[in-house]
From TrEMBL:
CUB domain span: 115-281
Coiled-coil regions, chain positions: none
Transmembrane segments: none
Superkingdom of source: Eukaryota
N-terminal signal peptide: none
InterPro entries documented for this protein: CUB_metazoa (IPR058698), Sperma_CUB_dom_sf (IPR035914)
Any single Pfam family the record assigns to this protein: CUB_animal
Protein's name in the database: CUB domain-containing protein
Length: 288
């Protein structure tokens, strides 16, 4: 079944260049309102249900559970560029729910996403999750290739990333406490055991790009060089490390790139994607 929602410009609103599309989770109910069937379990491709955006800048197809996540769509400069949001569902054996809030953002606002950013975060701290991330049941989506941007707040010169707490939501009452973190599992067979970090050219299939990233908070075990890609099963800017680390980047603007290819099995199994908390670092601090 295909449900298409054309997104129209509001009458009498000029200079709209970006649509913000939020996948809303209702506060008063514990119902996740972007819950469509997830990817197939071998190569993590969205072959059953799909959420497709057409007409704007290229947006990767997503599926699965994405409550409280969002995307930005570049609407272009013309007055008539149609943007269509499409939910494709396949089969009737899955309880689906979704609720999508679309906001139109004028060109000249400070909360307008920078060009080319599929995701955009403001504020000195926040949480970034890959699509369909869930530490227990999620699967990293294949065929992703997009930029995540964080607005540089005034007087902040760097940004530090760390994985979300082991129980994911920082909820001490959570019943899903786990012995190891799935908050950063991008490549390798991470289903049965923890896989070490991989960096730079070792990341050839799926990776998160953090420009000139290095560990922070403790002395490096190797030369304090910086790297641009992290993958594997542990979040660390040093290659082949089994300890999760906080990672800092001072490259401006603050941007991440998430790339996945179309293949998982047999080498990559059980990867959940990533959940990172970020904190911007003030210019007054010695950052490295
Ligand atoms: Ca892959």
């Amino acid at each position: 079944m295909v449900r298409m929602v054309p997104v129209s410009r509001l009458q009498n609103v000029r200079n709209v260049v970006v649509y913000q599309v939020e996948f809303v989770q209702m506060v008063t109910e514990s119902v996740a309102l972007f819950n469509i069937r997830g990817p197939e379990k071998t190569n993590h491709q969205c072959i059953y249900d799909q959420f497709i955006v057409s007409g704007g800048n290229p947006v990767p197809t997503i599926c699965g559970s994405n409550a409280d996540n969002h995307i930005y769509i570049d609407a272009g400069l013309g007055q008539t560029n149609p943007v269509t949001l499409t939910f494709v569902t396949s089969g009737n054996s899955f309880a689906r729910s979704w609720k999508v809030r679309v906001s139109q953002i004028r060109c000249n606002t400070i909360y307008r996403a920078e060009e080319g950013c599929l995701q955009y975060f403001t504020g000195i701290s926040g949480q970034i999750k890959s699509f369909n991330y869930d530490p227990v049941t999620g699967l990293q989506l294949s065929n992703q290739d997009y930029s995540i941007c964080i607005r540089m707040e005034r007087n902040f010169c760097g940004i530090q990333y760390m994985t979300c707490p082991v129980d994911d939501k920082g909820d001490s009452t959570s019943m899903t406490q786990m012995t190891r973190s799935h908050a950063f599992t991008l490549t390798g067979n991470t289903q049965a055991m923890q896989i070490a970090s991989m960096t730079g050219a070792a990341c050839q299939t799926d990776w998160l790009t953090i420009p000139c990233a290095s560990n922070t908070g403790r002395l490096p075990t190797t030369m304090n060089t910086c790297i641009d890609r992290i993958c594997g099963g542990t979040f660390n800017a040093e290659n082949q490390n089994l300890n999760t680390s906080s990672v800092i980047s001072t490259v401006k603007p603050f941007r991440l790139i998430f790339h996945t290819d179309s293949i998982e099995a047999p080498n990559d199994v059980g990867n959940r994607g990533f959940c990172l908390n970020y904190i911007q670092q003030p210019c007054t601090t010695k950052l490295r």
